[in-house]
Amino acid sequence: MRRVRKFFFLPMREKLLLFQAALLLTSMRAALALFRFQTVRHSLSRLARPKHKPQSYRDVDKIVWATEAAVRGLPGIGTCLTQALTAHVLLGRAGYDTNLRIGVTRDKAGEFVAHAWLEKDNEVVIGGLGEELARYTPFPTL
Protein backbone atom coordinates (compact mmCIF):
# COMPACT_ATOMS: atom_id res chain seq x y z
CA MET A 1 0.00 0.00 0.00
CA ARG A 2 2.89 2.35 0.80
CA ARG A 3 4.31 1.93 -2.72
CA VAL A 4 0.96 2.83 -4.27
CA ARG A 5 0.74 5.97 -2.15
CA LYS A 6 4.30 6.97 -3.07
CA PHE A 7 3.52 6.40 -6.74
CA PHE A 8 0.53 8.78 -6.68
CA PHE A 9 2.67 11.57 -5.22
CA LEU A 10 5.31 11.30 -7.94
CA PRO A 11 5.43 13.97 -10.64
CA MET A 12 3.73 12.86 -13.87
CA ARG A 13 7.07 12.68 -15.72
CA GLU A 14 8.42 10.20 -13.17
CA LYS A 15 5.21 8.14 -13.25
CA LEU A 16 5.52 7.81 -17.02
CA LEU A 17 9.19 6.88 -16.79
CA LEU A 18 8.44 4.27 -14.14
CA PHE A 19 5.63 2.86 -16.28
CA GLN A 20 7.95 2.71 -19.31
CA ALA A 21 10.61 0.93 -17.28
CA ALA A 22 8.12 -1.63 -15.94
CA LEU A 23 6.69 -2.27 -19.40
CA LEU A 24 10.15 -2.63 -20.95
CA LEU A 25 11.37 -4.86 -18.14
CA THR A 26 8.42 -7.20 -18.56
CA SER A 27 8.79 -7.19 -22.35
CA MET A 28 12.52 -7.88 -22.03
CA ARG A 29 11.89 -10.90 -19.85
CA ALA A 30 9.33 -12.30 -22.31
CA ALA A 31 11.51 -11.57 -25.36
CA LEU A 32 14.54 -13.29 -23.83
CA ALA A 33 12.41 -16.34 -23.05
CA LEU A 34 10.97 -16.52 -26.57
CA PHE A 35 13.79 -15.43 -28.88
CA ARG A 36 17.53 -15.80 -29.30
CA PHE A 37 19.61 -13.13 -27.58
CA GLN A 38 20.98 -11.93 -30.93
CA THR A 39 17.44 -11.32 -32.21
CA VAL A 40 16.48 -9.41 -29.06
CA ARG A 41 19.66 -7.33 -29.18
CA HIS A 42 19.05 -6.40 -32.83
CA SER A 43 15.50 -5.25 -32.05
CA LEU A 44 16.70 -3.27 -29.04
CA SER A 45 19.22 -1.37 -31.13
CA ARG A 46 16.28 0.09 -33.08
CA LEU A 47 14.29 0.80 -29.91
CA ALA A 48 17.26 2.55 -28.28
CA ARG A 49 17.59 5.22 -30.97
CA PRO A 50 17.60 8.73 -29.49
CA LYS A 51 14.37 10.67 -29.32
CA HIS A 52 16.02 13.89 -28.10
CA LYS A 53 19.33 15.30 -26.89
CA PRO A 54 20.60 14.43 -23.42
CA GLN A 55 19.92 17.25 -21.00
CA SER A 56 21.72 16.44 -17.76
CA TYR A 57 23.07 13.68 -15.58
CA ARG A 58 19.88 13.97 -13.61
CA ASP A 59 18.13 12.25 -16.52
CA VAL A 60 20.58 9.33 -16.23
CA ASP A 61 19.91 9.11 -12.50
CA LYS A 62 16.14 9.20 -13.02
CA ILE A 63 16.28 6.46 -15.66
CA VAL A 64 18.42 4.25 -13.41
CA TRP A 65 16.05 4.98 -10.50
CA ALA A 66 12.99 4.05 -12.61
CA THR A 67 14.60 0.81 -13.77
CA GLU A 68 15.57 -0.21 -10.23
CA ALA A 69 12.17 0.80 -8.83
CA ALA A 70 10.38 -1.24 -11.51
CA VAL A 71 12.51 -4.26 -10.56
CA ARG A 72 11.54 -3.85 -6.90
CA GLY A 73 7.88 -3.59 -7.88
CA LEU A 74 7.99 -6.66 -10.13
CA PRO A 75 9.77 -9.39 -8.16
CA GLY A 76 11.09 -12.26 -10.24
CA ILE A 77 11.11 -10.26 -13.48
CA GLY A 78 14.32 -8.32 -13.10
CA THR A 79 17.49 -10.27 -13.77
CA CYS A 80 20.77 -8.42 -14.23
CA LEU A 81 20.39 -8.83 -18.00
CA THR A 82 16.80 -7.55 -18.18
CA GLN A 83 17.74 -4.55 -16.01
CA ALA A 84 20.77 -3.70 -18.13
CA LEU A 85 18.79 -4.03 -21.36
CA THR A 86 15.92 -1.92 -20.02
CA ALA A 87 18.26 0.86 -18.90
CA HIS A 88 20.11 0.61 -22.23
CA VAL A 89 16.90 1.27 -24.19
CA LEU A 90 15.69 4.08 -21.92
CA LEU A 91 19.08 5.80 -21.86
CA GLY A 92 19.50 5.33 -25.61
CA ARG A 93 16.11 6.92 -26.28
CA ALA A 94 17.19 9.86 -24.12
CA GLY A 95 20.28 10.28 -26.32
CA TYR A 96 22.93 8.65 -24.14
CA ASP A 97 25.48 6.15 -25.46
CA THR A 98 25.89 3.10 -23.25
CA ASN A 99 27.72 -0.22 -23.41
CA LEU A 100 26.09 -3.46 -22.37
CA ARG A 101 28.69 -5.67 -20.70
CA ILE A 102 28.45 -9.36 -19.88
CA GLY A 103 31.11 -11.06 -17.83
CA VAL A 104 31.74 -14.56 -16.55
CA THR A 105 33.46 -16.14 -13.58
CA ARG A 106 33.29 -19.28 -11.47
CA ASP A 107 31.75 -19.37 -8.01
CA LYS A 108 33.28 -21.08 -4.96
CA ALA A 109 31.86 -24.42 -6.07
CA GLY A 110 33.49 -24.00 -9.49
CA GLU A 111 30.19 -23.38 -11.27
CA PHE A 112 30.03 -21.02 -14.23
CA VAL A 113 28.35 -17.70 -13.34
CA ALA A 114 27.50 -14.76 -15.63
CA HIS A 115 26.54 -11.18 -14.88
CA ALA A 116 25.37 -8.26 -17.03
CA TRP A 117 25.85 -4.57 -16.36
CA LEU A 118 25.55 -1.28 -18.22
CA GLU A 119 28.30 1.30 -18.59
CA LYS A 120 28.14 4.93 -19.63
CA ASP A 121 31.43 6.74 -20.16
CA ASN A 122 33.27 3.74 -18.63
CA GLU A 123 31.25 4.05 -15.40
CA VAL A 124 28.84 1.34 -14.27
CA VAL A 125 25.34 2.84 -14.13
CA ILE A 126 23.35 -0.32 -13.47
CA GLY A 127 24.33 -3.82 -12.38
CA GLY A 128 27.37 -2.82 -10.35
CA LEU A 129 28.53 -5.27 -7.73
CA GLY A 130 31.18 -3.08 -6.15
CA GLU A 131 34.55 -4.78 -5.88
CA GLU A 132 32.89 -8.11 -6.69
CA LEU A 133 32.51 -6.97 -10.33
CA ALA A 134 36.28 -7.22 -10.82
CA ARG A 135 36.01 -11.03 -10.51
CA TYR A 136 34.09 -11.18 -13.79
CA THR A 137 35.94 -11.50 -17.08
CA PRO A 138 33.96 -9.33 -19.51
CA PHE A 139 33.19 -10.30 -23.07
CA PRO A 140 33.79 -7.62 -25.71
CA THR A 141 31.38 -4.68 -25.44
CA LEU A 142 27.96 -5.31 -26.97
List keywords for this structure.
single chain; 142 residues; alpha+beta; 16% strand
Structure notes:
The longest helix has 23 residues, at about 10-35. Strand 1 and strand 2 form a beta hairpin. This protein has one domain. It has about 140 residues and is α+β, with helices and mostly antiparallel strands. The relative contact order is 0.14. The model has no long low-confidence stretch (mean pLDDT about 85). The protein has a four-stranded antiparallel sheet. Helices cover about 50% and strands about 15% of the residues. It has helices at about 1-10, 10-35, 35-45, 55-75, 80-95; strands spanning about 100-105, 110-120, 125, 135-140. Helix 2 (about 10-35) crosses helix 4 (about 55-75), helix 2 packs across helix 5 and helix 4 packs antiparallel against helix 5 (about 80-95).
Outline:
The chain has helices at about 1-10, 10-35, 35-45, 55-75, 80-95, and strands at about 100-105, 110-120, 125, 135-140. The chain has about 140 residues and is an alpha+beta fold. Strand 1 and strand 2 form a beta hairpin.
